[in-house]
Amino acid sequence: GQGDADPLSKLHLDPPTLARGAGVYRRWCVSCHGPAGAGDGPAAATLLPAPRDYRTGVFKFVTSDPAAAPGKPRRADLARVLRRGIDGTAMPPFPD
Prior knowledge:
The protein has 96 residues and is mainly α. Helix content is 33%, strand content 0%. The mean pLDDT is 85.
């Protein structure tokens, strides 16, 4: 049935896309968010507030669209945070 679909294909995450994303994460994100997204990168100890632990799947900035999955960000939500950063935190903008 529909629920049996491979989650990666449902998210349109093919191997080349995943490899590219992994490279971007290693270059720009791992120093704060850590290798597994735990918020424990080498720079994390100096940041206030500390980087989020994304392993739990809990996101702070999500859409208020009632049709969206509750508590889960849309791709547009994630893109907005990455492109604009988050005021009052160490999360910088990555406009490109």
